[in-house]
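Raw record, unedited: L-ascorbate oxidase
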Amino acid sequence: MLQMGKAREPNFLILFFFGLILAFGISSEGSQIRHYKWEVEYMFWAPDCNENIVMGINGQFPGPTIRANAGDTVVVELINKLHTEGVVIHWHGILQRGTPWADGTASISQCAINPGETFFYNFTVDNPGTFFYHGHLGMQRSAGLYGSLIVDPPQGKKEPFHYDGEINLLLSDWWHQSIHKQEVGLSSKPIRWIGEPQTILLNGRGQFDCSIAAKYDSNLEPCKLKGSEPCAPYIFHVMPKKTYRIRIASTTALAALNFAIGNHPLLVVEADGNYVQPFYTSDIDIYSGESYSVLITTDQNPSENYWVSVGTRGRHPNTPPGLTLLNYLPNSVSKLPTSPPPETPAWDDFDRSKNFTYRITAAMGSPKPPVKSNRRIFLLNTQNVINGYVKWAINDVSLALPPTPYLGAMKFNLLHAFDQNPPPEVFPEDYDIDTPPTNEKTKIGNGVYQFKIGEIVDVILQNANMMKENLSEIHPWHLHGHDFWVLGYGDGKFTAEEESSLNLKNPPLRNTVVIFPYGWTAIRFVADNPGVWAFHCHIEPHLHMGMGVVFAEGVEKVGRIPTKALACGGTAKSLINNP
């Protein structure tokens, strides 16, 4: 059995790479169709011991976990039981090859599902990995519309690493203020910012105004929990001398997080559904939209329990860490660890954050990127003011989605459904990223970056100063419909001299990537998936304020689109004329 000790690390790597080679030889035989019937509705819940309204599925929060094997077809019958709101669900990390209408992005891939209506999502899960799903209309993710989506290897195949058990962890942040009040505040003049979350939730559970670790700090109020409450910690039950895989996904609306387990090193083996070169770390930073798998070995004192701690990074930590226990059975969960929880690194220690992120490279045998690209787009994200409203913009364009979904508008050639002028592909060379923007040319827009099928595209994400002096924030960017190679990161403005530093040897494949303050991030992808795809900051209020773009490729090759997906806006009339 695999041990976590350093002396066994080389043997583990050999097994890992051997297994990886076997994994790439998988077939699609024996795939299944997995059916789910979901009702989405608001309900009373107490995620952090304070009763509130959450958006749940079938009376559950978080929503039910989808578990399938690679090659399986997933069919979700989604019934909207919200009384006054539409709804969609995005299957984060699922590529939707052949089913771009099922991507679950309102105004891009489909119409919102109206109250009382039913919509069938039908798609194939291609690759094994750790994924999740969430609402993609307004700020419904912040309201609790999310859940886990786990894809195992095809039937009869195994992962390229051994483990004895598995723990699934979905991380989120929680506000006591309703999403409707948050949305109105973000769209007000002057803006009313949402503030930091009240609580970090681990599998939908957290504690507000009390701490399960109060015995180490007299300033904290101890939690008085029986264990059956919806806010009681989700305990990680483990047996001694075993290896466990912990799947970690972050569906936070705002918070960047740090995950650590007391006395237990983490072996990182997967990121965003792709295998990575394994490496040990004491903790991981995880940004909204990212997912990881880590292996731990329960080789510590078996008579003790150990802290699991999730703290905030990248923003001033006004939110207490989320806590739970790694419970070595048969110990009682009431037995607290002898030491306090791991201390979260300083929120503004970006060098530490970069050190972790830069260590992530592709596992041996992973697909390599094309040597050269056909097209390069530079995207500068800035915070701006438009007619007195605070917005986020990309190359001076703040995204406002049209009422007719792009997929249908382009499929039926509806030229007036959105701006036919493509957005800028570059920003001024003399732009000073170290000073606040001037806001002179910023506008609202909904144009599309269109690619030829097979085109190899580089995107350089460029960060800059916000409206307040000496302030730049972390932004995690998520691309729908594709995985991309992360070619590199850097400080300051990207220049031609940076070209030689790009990693073409073993860049990791991801679907979400971070851009650090005052820095740049370079990615490469192949436009080989016909459809229309969002590319946006995964921080919920930033997208709400316009921080995103739209990519399209080969829409003419998209097959039949279900009528209900396009029964709104200009496409509704087109469906009548072109049944």
